[in-house]
Design brief:
By secondary structure, the protein is an all-alpha fold. It has helices at about 1-20, 25-45, 45-60, 65-75, 80-95, 100-120, 180-205.
């Protein structure tokens, strides 16, 4: 009887030791809840809501996978400067990431894209467009000598002389006006920036694949 009691006590102690060795982690459970909620928003293209959930999950348990997911959400929502920042934070926190080559490609594309956008946004206009067309000043009328009347046997009525010929003022062609080429130059710059953005976005991976994670 005494031996049975000792064996039972040993089993209870061993079981208690195992339970204490693997306690429930409340922070991991909270991080997993935010992860799941963020994934639901992400699949519905609700990127801002997904970012908020993943930021809360990262605060509960700072896993680098949260940073990668946030970067993906920012990239797909075209917030390229924030996406670039979080891709870099992800590699800084996990330099041996299995998807490092993919992330480095995103960083290269986004760095070029953000740089070009800033250059277009800060470049001064070639020439401001006037609020209305400015007419060229008309040249003053130059008096001309009266034209010699042809000899005729019929006298002019009332002895009036021939009328002076008025010169019609010339109009400058629109292609020779300064503001015209300013507008053309600005339009070319905008189109060039659009082409650059389109090419760079075409090379970026637009898939919505996120790696699995365990907390």
């Amino acid at each position: 009887m005494r031996i049975f009691s000792l064996l039972l006590a040993a089993v209870l102690l061993l079981g208690g030791g195992i339970a204490r060795a693997e306690p429930t982690d409340p922070s991991a459970a909270e991080a997993e809840r935010h992860w799941t909620a963020g994934m639901a928003h992400f699949r519905l293209d609700e990127y801002d809501a997904a970012v908020k959930e993943w930021e809360a999950g990262f605060r509960a348990k700072p896993s680098p996978q949260f940073l990668y997911n946030i970067a993906q959400a920012y990239r797909l929502s075209k917030q390229y400067d924030k996406a670039l920042s979080f891709y870099k934070k992800y590699l800084y926190m996990q330099p041996d990431a299995p998807n490092r080559a993919e992330v480095e490609n995103h960083i290269a594309v986004l760095t070029k894209l953000v740089s070009d956008q800033q250059a277009v946004a800060t470049s001064p206009p070639v020439q401001p467009l006037p609020s209305q067309e400015t007419k060229s000043p008309e040249p003053p009328a130059v008096p001309t000598a009266p034209a010699a009347a042809p000899e005729s046997t019929t006298p002019a009525p009332n002895g009036a002389s021939a009328a002076l010929t008025a010169r019609a003022p010339g109009r400058t062609p629109i292609t020779k006006k300064g503001w015209f080429w300013g507008v053309i130059g600005g339009a070319v710059a905008v189109v060039a920036a659009g082409v650059v953005v389109g090419v760079l976005l075409g090379t970026a991976d637009s898939t919505k694949t996120l790696p699995a994670v365990r907390f």
